[in-house]
Design goal:
This protein is an alpha/beta fold. The chain has nine helices and 13 strands. It is about 35% helix and about 30% strand. It starts with a helix and ends with a strand.
């Protein structure tokens, strides 16, 4: 095997109605292509009779065609099984735009992981409705796009965000504590392409100071949820969640610190799983091949 062939590595994500012969058809296609399987994962949603598969493969016997050619070659198999499918080049991480307001903990964590090579993403820049994070972002050598918003300018501001996404070929928008609700129109455009993070108290502790509300109620577990953004506020398909116990002697400030740590971890996992093509939509749920 040549080093050039080894360097070729693709991921194929497929979903379709469950039936016999899907995995065999995919494996035979990759074999005939000259590829070798690095990793494969499968799941059948028995309640909806739907099949999901993620296949990671590289060049073994010969140089593989380019992705556009491979997709065309695979089309007849996809048509036979009624598949939704997409090939991805592992060596071309998706372009990511991060949105933030005034709370920088999730942004800082993502940027640290990105610089450390722990986040499989090509960060295109950061957009914000405030100037607070500019110095931190520019210190990392990334462009900072200041797009202020008011109720009267929301449509114009969102149009500017969407223009930035299209201009920079951004695949994923990450709302890293971006404290603005996206309009239904923008949610539709970004379906499956925008990830939000929030504390898991929703809908029990809505509004301001959720950790202080939780403290007043004496909660014993706090957490965070990362999900895809939809028109229904904080009700999109969940990608990842985590929790941590808290005790009676923890102050509201302790809960805030713990909550921020969990938010960092949960959002980073969700973003990385999306960027490594491990998340597939299943209605209002997700299939995550970890």
């Amino acid at each position: 095997m040549t080093q050039h062939h080894q360097s070729q590595r693709y991921v194929l994500n497929t979903s379709c109605p469950d039936t016999i012969g899907i995995a065999r058809a995919v494996m035979n296609f990759i074999y005939d292509l000259g590829g070798g399987i690095v990793d494969t994962s499968q799941f059948v949603d028995v309640y909806n009779d739907h099949y999901f598969m993620r296949t990671d493969f590289n060049g073994v016997m010969r140089e593989l065609p380019d992705l556009a050619t491979i997709q065309d070659m695979f089309a007849p198999i996809a048509a036979e099984f009624g598949m939704t499918y997409q090939f991805h080049d592992v060596h071309r991480p998706p372009r990511v735009l991060i949105a933030v307001s005034k709370h920088g903990h999730c942004l800082n964590d993502l940027l640290f992981r990105w610089e450390a090579g722990e986040l499989n993403a090509d960060i295109a820049g950061v957009v914000s409705n405030h100037e607070d994070m500019r110095a931190k972002v520019e210190w990392h050598g990334l462009p900072y796009h200041y797009l202020p918003v008011t109720p009267d300018t929301k449509a114009e501001q969102e149009a500017a965000v969407l223009h930035l996404i299209e201009e920079q070929n951004v695949e994923l928008l990450v709302l890293a504590r971006y404290m603005q609700i996206l309009s239904p129109g923008l949610c539709k455009v970004l379906r499956g392409r925008a990830i939000n993070i929030h504390h898991s108290f929703l809908p029990g502790f809505k509004g301001a100071r959720p950790y202080h509300q939780a403290y007043e109620r004496g909660v014993k577990v706090i957490g965070a949820t990362a999900h895809y953004v939809t028109e229904d506020l904080d009700d999109g398909p969940i990608i990842e969640q985590d929790t941590q116990r808290v005790e009676h002697y923890h102050s509201p400030e302790d809960l805030v610190r713990t909550g921020r740590d969990i938010e960092n971890i949960v959002l980073a996992r969700a973003v990385n799983w999306h960027c490594t093509r491990r998340v597939m939509l299943n209605g209002n749920r997700t299939v995550v091949f970890k």
